[in-house]
User: What shape does this take?
Amino acid sequence: MSRRVAREIAFKTVFQYDQGRNEAEPVLSSLIAESDLSSSQAAFARELALGVIAKLEELDELIRPYLKNWQLERLAAVDKNILRLAVYELIYHKNIPVAVTINEALELCKIYHDEKAAKFLNGVLDKLAQEKTAGKEEN
Assistant: This one.
């Protein structure tokens, strides 16, 4: 198993929280229990999901300026929550290379939405990353 599965679990948790206002912890615990994540990967999934939920308003404000001719509220729920997850990782996980964070977000988008949406997210994330992650490790 990889961090990709952990990110997918975090995304599913955030999505369900956003769409149904489901409590995050039972959803997250259930998804982790159904996976084969190691304890460190489960901790990563948990930190991502709960971190995004705790910082939703802040993340939304960070994202809004980069949505040229779009409103956050009009984005597909999948895209909005993938953006939130990726931006959280870009801002709060300085040890993860920017390219990895963006690539993982695009892969999630291709699975849960489509290639066209992934191109849109790539543009948003690339511009945001250039401006907000100065000094972040690029390895």
